[in-house]
Write a structure and sequence with these properties.
single chain, 15-stranded mixed beta sheet, 23% helix, Phosphorylase Kinase, domain 1, disordered C terminus, Alpha-Beta Plaits, alpha/beta, 52 strands
Length: 966
């Protein structure tokens, strides 16, 4: 009888399990077969249900597996053709698993919904299958750093949505395929932004038909191959290019004269070829930072003065290029020049870099020339190398510049000084003197705009930027250590990276996968100067692996099944009753403001419009029970969490903490206020929770952080002048709506750059209405408050002195934000107030009002003209007049901004700026998109943080990992 009961219970449990299994049966079977070909699987992949049991690295939607991300987990084995049974799969990232070998399955093209395929740093070999051209929704194809051989498949040309194509560091051979009317070719990839083909064995000529004016390429990296012939003149038609590397090939002939038409190019590297003819004239390439033409066979020529006209140049490398004659003094006065390398030429005469040379200079290398005279007119603090010149050939000369040699590496290493720290075997001390097992790898930069390794500030800022970015992405990172900076044989700077865990001695599997995802998808954007990169992670052997027998797991599952079944039986009825009770409770809670007796508050029940009630349970579920890893902001009110609903909608949740200053009345007022304002330039309130003693506000999720983050460069977003105008106009329209169109009008009271957020298209959204006040028609001109509220630096002095707040108080704060837009400085910095600094320095009789020392250098170095800047400054200073009556209204400001935008050649009704605006997003199946052209949102001369794709599902998946709001 007992045995029969056990059999019956087991059968019933299996049937119940089948009924509630979250994973589709086809997907479950396919994944089971697939994993039989893999070893070293994550521990969570031992039984249970992939979707329901949250197998690490698996993402599901409606029971279907849509994403597999297993970078850096030490997988070994092969990729089975059974993969194609996962018909809803959109993202596959298996990067940094060197033990994954064999070829790609020939039927991989059957994954019709695949948008992201990233297999960086694995051991795959064989040819790339032609069927890959059937992945019509693919936006990201990264197969670099493997052992693929054979030709580049022409079928890739059919991938119309492809944004990122990286096949570098393989053994590919043959020529670049182009279309011929019958067969496809890479010339059809007009939407692609990245062609990365370096370090292969590609040969033949670069086809003329590969390039056209329809293409939108940003990076063309063909270096370290065997290409022959000339550079096709059609390359000059691709006006969007920002980085061009053709070095270390066998190219020859004259360089086409229209190369200088590529006015957006930042890095141009043509070295180590066999180019002949004159040194090309690059006049007009005003964005050029880095140029290297070394080791070619150019005809002898004097150093051309066109070099001195390119004021953005930081690095000029022209070693062994046939240069002769005397160097002009103007060459050393290029304002941003850091490195000048012209060794092994016939430069002669006297060397004179004057007394007003660039303050940025780090290195001048003129070894093995014919310089006969050098007079030091002033002391200098850069490295100067003049060995093997006539000036050093005199007997007894013992000058430092006659013996200095170039260092192709750097001794820089992140400082670690922990003399008393004793770490266990295998652990390493972090820069913050904590022992741990770091996540490590080699970081290589493919198109850097720097060459002087002697400046530790480069790497210090890079280390700080990486550390801050990883922390801001809510990864469990404590600190970052960089070391062993060298220039490798391919002309790439590279370094070692060690990332230490926070709050523990090692990363768990989720942490390692998340770190791998950040690097494989280029989510982290380095500071300007480092350019596109590739990161190859080492294996991370410290977390537990699933190497043992699964018998124990199966036994445990059987025992657990029996217990679970009994719990199901006991809880089934209770669940049914609870569901009914929850529905009634939600209805009651939706009207829970009735408990705020109008006799107590004097306000009665709030009048809500389009604001949804959420239960505590709903918000706990979408934030993993308000877990620390989901915290994206904090303040006196409490904390802000990111969350994701079952339908993949991203939200930001502002949860008041116990003892906060916000009482029931203030909470009610804020909900009522936010539920009644609707404008595209205001952050939208989705709902609230007033349940179980909680006071929670639920907002739309704004992915690109705050305006301050963008201006200070901490978010990886770089704003040119046009984009700053459009953001200013958008924020002003939001405030105009509050002041003039809301009924009754609303005064924000806390306008600042951290309360202006940027959405996925960099449209401004005014946020945080916690201090806002209604200002009805019956109110007096000044709204008298009992306590001044606001933020130091933005606070209206008239409001502060009189305790009377009007809409002109917002105007004052907005004027301070406008000055931030110009200077990219916080209002009070080192005891100096931005308003006073501008007023003191301004001279309206001179160009740019003589504010060059205060204007953001990014604006001054950009190719985008500063149209209307003087008018913008005048408006900002009008806003910060001492008396409110002397300040303009927001409506008047909006009109003035629209006029400036028109002068700049933009449509003030447009929501997006022109292509010159620079922002780059991150990747992984994921999208931050403009309405028509995603190049609006991409960094000039850099690899993307996000690869563009229009699929909303992947967009949500991205922000589940990278989203952030303040």
């Amino acid at each position: 009888m007992v045995i029969r009961l056990v059999i019956f219970l087991a059968f019933l449990y299996i049937r119940v399990g089948d009924a509630v299994s979250p994973t589709d049966n086809q997907d479950y079977a396919a994944l089971t077969v697939l994993t039989k070909h893999w070893e070293n699987l994550p521990l969570s992949w031992t039984g249970g249900d992939p979707c329901g049991n949250e197998w690490v690295g698996i993402t599901c939607r409606s029971s279907r597996i849509i994403s597999i991300k297993l970078s850096s987990v030490g997988l070994t084995g092969q990729l089975s053709g059974d993969l194609v049974s996962l018909s809803e799969l959109q993202t596959l990232d298996l990067s940094y698993n060197i033990g994954l070998t064999g070829s790609l399955p020939p039927n991989i093209g059957q994954l019709a919904k695949l948008t992201i395929l990233i297999l960086i740093g694995c051991g795959f070999s064989g040819t790339i299958p032609d069927s890959i051209g059937s992945l019509q929704q693919l936006t990201d194809l990264s197969l670099n750093s493997n052992k693929f051989s054979g030709q580049v498949p022409a079928s890739i040309g059919k991938l119309k949505e492809l944004y990122w194509l990286d096949l570098s560091d393989n053994k590919l051979s043959g020529s670049i395929p182009v279309s011929d009317g019958t067969n496809p070719g890479l010339d059809l990839l007009v939407n692609a932004k990245h062609f990365h083909f370096g370090i292969n064995q590609l040969s033949g000529t670069i086809p003329d038909r590969l390039f056209s004016s329809d293409m939108t390429l940003i990076h063309l990296l063909f270096d370290n191959n065997n290409f022959t012939g000339m550079i096709p003149s059609t390359l000059g038609l691709v006006q969007t290019l920002q980085a061009v590397r053709l070095d270390r090939n066998k190219l020859g002939g004259h360089i086409p004269s229209n190369l200088k038409d590529l006015t957006d190019v930042n890095e141009l590297v043509l070295s180590n070829n066999d180019f002949s003819g004159p040194v090309p004239d690059l006049t007009g390439m005003n964005n050029l930072n880095y140029v290297d033409m070394s080791n070619n066979s150019f005809a002898a020529a004097n150093v051309s003065l066109w070099l001195t006209s390119l004021e953005s140049l930081t690095t000029v490398i022209m070693e062994n290029t046939g240069l002769e004659g005397q160097l002009p003094v103007e060459l050393f006065c290029i304002p941003l020049l850091q490195t000048l390398m012209m060794a092994n030429n016939q430069v002669n005469g006297s060397l004179d870099f004057g007394t007003t040379y660039s303050s940025q200079l780090l290195l001048i290398d003129l070894r093995n020339n014919s310089l006969s005279e050098f007079t030091v007119k002033s002391s200098y603090n850069f490295t100067l190398m003049l060995a093997d010149n006539k000036v050093c050939n005199f007997s007894g000369v013992n000058l430092s510049y006659c013996h200095a040699q170039q260092d192709r590496g750097s001794s820089y290493s992140t400082p670690v000084s922990c003399p008393a720290l004793q770490c266990e075997s295998g652990q390493k001390p972090s820069p913050k003197c904590k022992c741990g097992y770091p996540y490590t790898g080699t970081w290589t930069f493919r198109a850097p705009s720097f060459s002087a390794f002697g400046n530790p500030n480069y790497f210090k800022s890079l280390q700080q930027s990486l550390e801050e970015s990883l922390v801001s992405l809510n990864l469990p990172v404590d600190s970052v250590l960089l070391s062993d900076v060298v220039m490798d044989a391919f002309g790439y700077p590279k370094m070692r990276v060690a990332i230490f865990p926070a709050g523990q001695v090692l990363f768990n599997t989720t942490g390692v996968i998340s770190l791998g995802f950040v690097f494989s998808n280029q989510i982290y954007q380095p500071s300007k100067g480092f350019g596109p990169y590739v990161f190859i992670a080492d294996s991370y052997p410290y977390f537990g692996k699933n190497n043992g027998s699964r018998i124990g797991v199966i036994v445990g599952a059987v025992v657990g099944s029996s217990v679970l079944f009994l719990l199901l039986c006991a809880g089934g009825y209770a669940y049914h009753r609870k569901k009914i009770a929850d529905k009634a409770k939600q209805q009651a809670n939706a009207n829970s403001f009735v408990s705020w007796d109008s006799q107590q508050t004097g306000d009665g029940i709030p009048q809500l419009k389009a604001a949804r009630f959420f239960s505590v349970e709903e918000l706990q579920k979408c934030t993993n029970n308000f877990s620390e890893e989901n915290i994206i902001g904090a303040g006196g009110y409490g904390k802000v969490y990111k969350g994701i609903f079952a339908d993949r909608q991203m939200i930001a949740i502002k949860r008041s903490q116990a003892g906060s200053m916000q009482g029931s009345r203030e909470f009610r007022n804020e909900i009522e206020l936010l539920s009644r304002v609707h404008h595209k330039n205001l952050v939208k309130l989705l709902g609230f929770c007033y349940d179980q003693g909680e006071q929670i506000l639920v907002y739309e999720f704004i992915p690109n952080g705050t305006l301050m983050d963008a201006l200070l460069g901490t978010s990886g977003i770089q704003l040119d002048w046009i984009r700053r105008l459009m953001i200013t106009l958008g924020a002003a329209r939001g405030l105009q709506y509050l002041h003039e169109l809301a009924d009754p009008p609303i005064i924000h009271r806390d306008i600042k750059s951290t309360n202006i957020l940027l959405d996925e298209r960099l449209i401004a959204k005014v946020a945080d209405f916690g201090l806002s006040k209604l200002f009805g028609d019956t109110e007096e001109k000044g709204y008298v408050t009992t306590q001044v509220k606001g933020t130091l630096g933005y606070l209206d002095p008239e409001y502060y002195m009189t305790n009377q707040v009007t809409e002109k108080s917002d105007v004052y704060s907005f004027g301070v934000v406008m000055l931030e837009m110009i200077t990219a400085r916080i209002p009070i910095q080192k005891g100096k107030y931005i308003v006073k600094e501008i007023k003191t320095a301004i001279d309206r009789t001179k160009d740019l009002y003589s504010l060059q020392e205060l204007i953001d250098p990014i604006l001054l170095s950009s190719a985008t003209p500063l149209v209307g800047l003087e008018k913008f400054v005048d408006l900002a200073l009008n806003c910060v007049q001492d008396s409110g009556v002397d300040r303009p209204t927001m409506g008047e400001l909006v009109q003035e901004f629209e006029n400036i935008v028109k002068l700049a050649g933009m449509n003030p009704s447009a929501e997006s700026g022109p292509l010159s605006c620079t922002y780059d997003g991150a990747s992984g199946g994921d999208a931050w998109n403009t309405s028509t052209d995603d190049s609006l949102l991409r960094h000039s001369g850099s690899t993307p943080l996000i690869r563009t794709e229009s699929r909303a599902a992947a967009f949500i998946e991205k922000f589940r990992i990278t989203g952030h709001i303040s």
